[in-house]
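Re: [ENG-882] Designed sequences occasionally contain unexpected residues at chain ends

Forwarding the minimal case from QA. Structure tokens:
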């Protein structure tokens, strides 16, 4: 639920979706103005077009080099995002589109703008993750135009005192360059929990809230307290109380970072706490957390930029890196979840009217079984080469027949089969699906999307896709019960597992493992270690009896906090 309200003390409180816990307090700052794109309909003289082309090429290459330089100074996700943006400023399709316009007489700045609009329209049509790249490409456009016009680079100012940054949305290049000692809180009116802003803020440890209504009206310089744990922003708070809240949050973060596993409740009920990764580098980074293993390896993310299918050997090499990083530990590899917000050029086909309900996940294999076979061969080869026994699961399973066919293909290669529960139909018939597979893993991001009929990428619908929705929790409960009856493990690997309080509820519902981004693992493990299994069960029962996500949070908070 987003919006603003007045508290008893006349402080104004804004509400958004919490994405990175922590509390930051300081005056509001805002990103610098983007350059105005000159509306220039003049036609460049034939003889000057060569020079105009050169101005564009030099500007695009300067922006790319500058971003690459910043990528080298940054680490982890921030560095990856900056490198991807540096590459985008040199994208051949985009450059060619602008060059074509300049060759036809368009001035360099207008051509940059028009070429960008061509591409953003295409990204928006595809939707999902591609639509998120619109912010990235528009940011590149603004930087290139600023360079062409010789005006300062747009972006976030460096404040003189610790401040909180409010923006519509931030370009990844801006978020990645933030200094966490000076920007102590971040709030955006757009974006979702899986946006680049959220991912980088998590890595930098900056308290962050997205999808905040009413942010635009707040003037620069207004003192504000940003609580990334609750999703609340208090404007003009009482200074003493604000300083105390910041200190308390810092002490809590210090305490949490001491947690080193293994996952268990205060009374010793063991729960595997695992990491979500997307490649070998992510898996190696996860080794530095207290993760017991990998609960979700999103293999499709390794191939987003590929035109052609990777060979079995190439796949084996990539998967082997992840298996090697967690040698001797549990690793759950997910087969390609291509389609919808993560289209793969070699696996997905042309336009679909409704890609989230279209051919994605295991449905790709219904069209072309060979893609699945070659991937399973790659996983089996990686397992053999590293001497490991990975678990392998399929995304977007809707029927028991799909689960049965997948399990047979996995077993044939000596691997352990499971499926993701992301479609309400699969949750409701979990007991039948469990007749065929050895484990289940609930993807709460998609389960919430399909249960609530609300696009998970939409910031306006963030309250509906909240995994605290009691209807989503009821499906989790049903699935966990089926797992317990069959004596088979049921994990959660969606964002719900990264929320410490909700993680305790999941355990109370009977979930046996929790898999989350590395940065969330200590928060989840530390919280779980302070509560008993009975308290988790009591909290789960209370959440299930509510009729809204807000009521569920409140009921659980009263028991576990
Ligand atoms: C999910 O849907 O919860 C999940 C873990 O899969 P993804 O986020 O990759 O769709
Ligand atoms: Mg999913």
């Amino acid at each position: 639920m987003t919006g603003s309200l007045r508290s008893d003390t006349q402080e104004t409180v804004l509400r958004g979706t919490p994405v990175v816990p922590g509390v930051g307090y300081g005056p509001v700052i805002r990103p610098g103005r983007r350059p105005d794109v000159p509306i220039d309909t003049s036609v460049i003289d034939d003889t000057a077009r060569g020079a105009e082309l050169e101005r564009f090429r030099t500007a695009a290459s300067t922006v790319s080099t500058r971003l690459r330089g910043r990528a080298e100074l940054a680490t982890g996700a921030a560095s990856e995002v900056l490198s991807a943006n540096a590459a985008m400023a040199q994208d051949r399709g985009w450059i060619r589109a602008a060059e074509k316009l300049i060759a036809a007489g368009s001035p360099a700045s207008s051509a940059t703008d028009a070429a960008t609009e061509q591409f953003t329209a295409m990204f928006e049509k595809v939707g999902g993750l591609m639509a998120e790249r619109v912010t990235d490409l528009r940011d590149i456009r603004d930087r290139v135009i600023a360079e062409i016009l010789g005006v300062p680079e747009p972006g976030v100012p460096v404040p003189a005192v610790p401040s909180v940054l409010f923006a519509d949305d931030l370009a990844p290049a801006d978020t990645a360059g933030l200094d966490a000692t000076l920007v102590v809180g971040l709030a955006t009116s757009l974006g979702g929990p899986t946006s680049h802003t959220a991912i980088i803020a998590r890595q930098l440890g900056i308290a962050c809230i997205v999808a905040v209504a009413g942010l635009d009206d707040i003037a620069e310089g207004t003192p504000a307290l940003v609580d990334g744990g609750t999703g609340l922003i208090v404007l003009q708070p009482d200074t003493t109380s604000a300083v105390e809240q910041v200190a308390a949050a810092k002490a809590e973060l210090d305490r949490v970072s001491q947690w080193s596993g293994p996952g268990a409740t205060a009374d010793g009920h063991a729960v595997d706490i695992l990491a979500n990764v997307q490649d070998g580098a992510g898996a190696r980074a996860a080794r530095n957390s207290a993760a017991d293993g990998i609960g979700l390896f999103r293999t499709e993310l390794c191939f987003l930029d590929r035109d052609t299918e990777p060979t079995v050997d190439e796949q084996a090499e990539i998967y082997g890196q992840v298996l090697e990083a967690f040698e001797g530990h549990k690793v759950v590899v997910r087969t390609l979840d291509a389609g919808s917000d993560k289209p793969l050029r070699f696996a997905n086909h042309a336009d679909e009217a409704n890609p989230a309900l279209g051919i994605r996940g295991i449905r790709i294999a219904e069209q072309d079984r060979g893609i699945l076979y070659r991937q399973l061969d790659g996983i089996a080869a990686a397992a053999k080469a590293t001497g490991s026994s990975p678990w392998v699961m399929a995304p977007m399973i809707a029927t028991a027949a799909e689960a049965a066919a997948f399990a047979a293909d996995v077993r044939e290669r000596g691997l352990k089969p499971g499926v993701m529960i992301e479609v309400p139909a699969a949750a409701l018939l979990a007991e039948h699906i469990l007749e065929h597979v050895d484990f289940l893993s609930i993807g709460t991001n998609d389960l919430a999307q399909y249960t609530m009929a609300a696009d998970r990428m939409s910031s306006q619908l963030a309250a509906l896709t909240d995994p605290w929705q009691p209807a989503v929790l009821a499906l989790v409960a049903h699935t966990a019960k089926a797992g317990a009856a069959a004596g088979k493990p049921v994990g959660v690997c969606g964002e719900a597992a990264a929320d410490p309080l909700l993680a305790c509820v999941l355990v109370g519902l009977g979930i046996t493992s929790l898999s989350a981004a590395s940065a969330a693992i200590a928060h989840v493990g530390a919280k779980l270690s302070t509560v008993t299994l009975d308290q988790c069960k009591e909290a789960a029962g209370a959440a299930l009896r509510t009729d809204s996500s807000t009521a569920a949070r409140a009921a659980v908070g009263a028991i576990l906090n």
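QA comment: On inspection the terminal residues look reasonable. Residues 1-9 have pLDDT under 50 and may be disordered. Proposing we downgrade this to a documentation issue.
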